[in-house]
Design brief:
- The protein has 2 domains: 2-124 and 301-331, Alpha-Beta Complex (Quinone Oxidoreductase, Chain A, domain 1), CATH 3.90.180.10; 127-277, NAD(P)-binding Rossmann-like Domain (Rossmann fold, 3-Layer(aba) Sandwich).
- The protein contains 12 helices and 16 strands.
- It has helices at residues 41-48, 119-123, 126-139, 156-167, 181-187, 200-203, 216-222, 241-246, 251-260, 262-270, 284-295, 312-320, and strands at residues 2-6, 16-19, 29-39, 61-62, 67-74, 86-89, 102-106, 110-112, 147-150, 171-176, 191-194, 207-212, 226-234, 274-277, 303-308, 327-331.
- Strands 3, 5, 6, 7, 8, 15 and 16 form a 7-stranded mixed β-sheet that branches. The chain has a 6-stranded parallel β-sheet with strand order 11-10-9-12-13-14, sandwiched between helices.
- Strand 12, helix 7 (216-222) and strand 13 (226-234) form a beta-alpha-beta unit.
- It is globular and about 55 Å long.
- The protein starts with a strand and ends with a strand.
């Protein structure tokens, strides 16, 4: 099969198109013919080597963390899917590789594709929707009437997180640029801070939850908008010891992660709020619940552009400009 892969870590490096064997099918796996995939900032970070300590991949490595496609074969112990099923997924972090024509995944990580979405729309969702779900539903336990600030509301995670928070009955604020104000309002944002004109930390106060996907400066300023007992959840780091434990890392690595996050945890404590780092995990059950929300019209896909498979490097470069609204998709089949 054809696939885009890296044989070494290199900042800004080009993915190589090559012929590789079809993935091996384990007894709990489904083999999916990929119709569409999407690009995430995570793909560039893996290529650049930013995660080589946390996620020790064997090279050469096929990149890609989202998939929509059709089941073509199932393992001997698979009970939930059959050939011909239209599915979507975020593969487990140790089995990524959706910039390809086929992928094998554990059935536990897979869900039926929403009936009201195209393959391209469905492929835009798994990683960002699971991130939003795990941040707001699992970690924040967001309740009706609570106030949440979602940074970068026009980005991949932000666009879904706004809709999910609104569906949960929260009061939603977001930050974005002037060009994207109408988009984030259409997704349900109650308050929009144009970061080119205003400082969010001077505009917002008394918030229960902040979901951060930006850098250190934004992370620290976010402490000022939270009320005592509030939760600062970051998907862009710094990682903490709890993440290292979740990842199955040893004591030494846990101490290193604790050290990395010690500054923001200290500052959070002084503000009377909690800090946690979220690295989303594959979960077909949660994705099934998200499917129900999509089919009910509570969440819609936000797709900026669709690139053909041969232009995968262009799609990755476009995501790296930081200007994409929602997601950038690659049509594989």
């Amino acid at each position: 099969m054809k696939a885009f892969l890296i044989d070494r870590y290199a900042k800004g490096g080009t993915l190589q198109l090559g012929e590789v064997p079809e993935p091996e099918l384990r007894e709990h796996d489904v083999l999916v013919q990929i119709h569409a995939t999407s690009v995430n900032p995570l793909d560039a970070k893996i290529r650049d080597g930013e995660f080589k300590l946390i996620l020790p991949y064997r090279l050469p490595l096929i990149l890609g963390n989202d998939v929509a496609g059709v089941v073509v074969r199932v393992g001997s112990k698979v009970r939930r899917f059959k050939p011909g099923d239209e599915v979507y997924a975020r593969p487990a972090q140790d089995r990524i590789g959706t910039f390809a024509e086929f992928i094998a995944m554990n059935e536990a990580d897979v869900a039926m594709k929403p009936k009201n979405l195209t393959m391209e729309e469905a492929a835009s969702l798994p990683l960002v929707a699971l991130t939003a779900w795990q941040a707001l539903v699992e970690r924040a336990k967001l309740k009706k009437g609570q106030k949440v600030l979602i940074h970068a509301g026009s980005g991949g995670v932000g666009a879904i997180a706004i809709q999910l928070a609104k569906h949960m009955g929260a009061y939603v604020a977001t930050t974005t640029s002037t060009a994207n104000i109408n988009l984030v309002r259409s997704l349900g944002a109650d308050v929009v801070v144009d970061y080119k004109k205003d400082d969010f930390e001077n505009t917002l106060q008394g918030y229960d939850v902040v979901l951060n996907s930006l850098g250190k400066e934004t992370l620290e300023k976010s402490l000022r908008v939270l009320k005592p007992g509030g939760k600062l959840i970051s998907i862009s780091g710094p990682p903490d010891a709890a993440f290292a434990r979740q990842n199955g890392s040893g004591w030494l690595f846990q101490q290193l992660m604790a050290l990395l996050s010690s500054g923001i945890r200290r500052k959070s404590k002084r503000h009377g709020v909690s800090y946690s780092f979220l690295f989303m995990t594959a979960n077909g059950g949660q994705l099934g619940e998200i499917t129900s929300l999509i089919e009910a019209g509570a969440i819609r896909a936000v797709v900026d552009r669709v690139f053909p498979f041969q232009n995968t490097n262009e799609a990755l470069a476009y995501v790296e400009t930081g200007r994409a609204k929602g997601k950038v998709v690659i049509a594989v089949k």
